Fold this protein.
Amino acid sequence: EIVLTQSPATLSLSPGERATLSCRASQTVSSYLAWYQQKPGQAPRLLIHDASNRATGIPARFSGSGSGTDFTLTISSLEPEDFAIYYCQHRSNWPLTFGGGTKVEIK
Amino acid sequence: QVQLVESGGGVVQPGRSLRLSCAASGFTFSTYALHWVRQPPGKGLEWVAIMFSDGNNRYYADSVKGRFTVSRDNSKNTLYLQMNSLRAEDTAVYYCARSMIYSDSSPAFYFDVWGQGTLVTVSS
């Protein structure tokens, strides 16, 4: 099973600041990695797939990069609605797994 | 609009069974693989199972293999999860999620549509 480790666990930032979230895989997942956003009481929402492709309707301030074992989700300028928990997920093999999440909170 | 609606959650005693349903609408159900993903209260996400569009192939997480069975009825646009021998650690919100499809119609195994979830509590 591929283990995804996200860091930091919590990121405290102000609106307008840049957020950089990391996801590291225990073995290569090529570019088969996605990012999701989850707000309290809601289901997750797909943001990025295949490491760097924005899903339909996702604003351009969200971008993804990386390949192999190291991946980054960047939010270029935080909007109030971006404060949430972010998860990475791979689809390289079975079972599919998620990272433990990074909480982006208001500083 | 594209929608997934789960039902069937509730409180159940350890060792008992429960069946969840996921009703789909707004898209061609038979074309898509579908997943169950769960989230224990206050914790992260765990993929549980996938049912491929052909209705024959499926995979499970090790934590539920042999106890849970995923199935689908394409005539009813519904996905199911039969959960047997339930344990306290199965307590979670269970989401039904659609598997994304690439432009060439191949499955992508990312989750592009989610239901609102149904809570399963295993407790005596």
In short: Chain B is about 0% helix and 55% strand. The radius of gyration of chain B is 14 Å.
